[in-house]
Amino acid sequence: MTVLVTGGTGAIGSNVARQLITAGHEVVIFDRVPLSPGHGVLGSLDKLPESEVGSVADLAVLIDVVHRHNVDSIVHCAAMLPPHDCDTRPVEALNVNIIGTANILEIARTHGIGRVLTASAAGVMGRPSDLVTPRGEDDVSLPLGGIYPLSKLACEQLVYTYRNLYKVNATAFRPRNVYGPGANPRIQPLFEAFFAAVKGEDFVRASGGASTFDYTYIKDITRGIVQLFEAESSPYHVYNISRGRATSMTEVFAALQKEFPGQRLEVGPGPWEGVVEGGKEFELTVHPAAMPPQDVSRAGRDFGYQPEWDIDRGIADWARWYRTGEY
């Protein structure tokens, strides 16, 4: 079985590719940037997987890759990120995220691809008023405030439609607040604190400890995605795959302080003030991503997904990988 992993040099895509290779699958990476021998996640494999460079918005290029490599299944992780880039370049984002997903599904329909998974996003749930009760896959609060989440909701609807109209064996999955090997620095509380710590810097915030996130270690979500892939089919068109519980920034800083005892890593009470998701030069207002955790019971019932990595163990493993490069 040859699996095409789009977005395969990115954090989730590269970890999924590694897990699939470890499980014995042939993998081809497709991304807009080439796969380098020194890639943090894939570079330590005995042999790099084959790779192709291109855009998922280019249907002809995708078809050529599928033909040349005899692809019979696809894990589609490519998307335009981070979310604030989608808001500043909306047409490009809609083209990559929605048309790119449509291209993948159309290839599956017309070329007999056996299994297709496509990455959605937790942001499709919107901003519910209840920030405590875990949200199931059907709990979506509209309207959505952003190009990225609305594009991902459209992708889920494409998956649903191709399943029902054309019997394409496709399923979407919703990751959430993913951290770990391969994840790059970005404006998000855990990332800001972690990358300051690995550089040997102190990181002290007067407030923020009460803010919570459904932080999911990348080895958990990767295992869940591969479990979904190997299930061969699924009764639902979309699944939450995350830790499934709220982790406070107080818990995050306690784990960081344990791992980096020589530095001051402290957070005070109250909500995390300032930008949570966005860029430092972003012109539009970016509101804190106050969202409840995801309910992952559907994934547990249908393909046995059970998260294993709590924040202490996850941060310790991420720090070890960052220091040693050993996956």
Describe, in plain words, how this protein is organized in 3D.
With 327 residues, the chain is an alpha/beta fold. It has a domain at 2-177 and 217-243 and 294-308: NAD(P)-binding Rossmann-like Domain (Rossmann fold), CATH 3.40.50. Helix content is 38%, strand content 14%. It has helices spanning 11-22, 59-68, 83-88, 90-111, 147-166, 189-198, 218-230, 249-259, 297-303, 311-324; strands at 2-6, 26-31, 50-53, 73-76, 115-119, 170-174, 178-179, 203-205, 212-213, 216-217, 238-240, 247-248, 265-267. The strands form 4 sheets. The chain has a 7-stranded parallel beta sheet with strand order 3-2-1-4-5-6-11, with helices on both faces. The protein has a two-stranded parallel ribbon with strand order 7-10. Strand 1, helix 1 (11-22) and strand 2 (26-31) form a beta-alpha-beta unit. Helix 4 packs parallel to helix 5 (147-166) and helix 6 runs parallel beside helix 8. The longest helix has 22 residues, at 90-111. The protein is globular, with a radius of gyration of 19 Å.
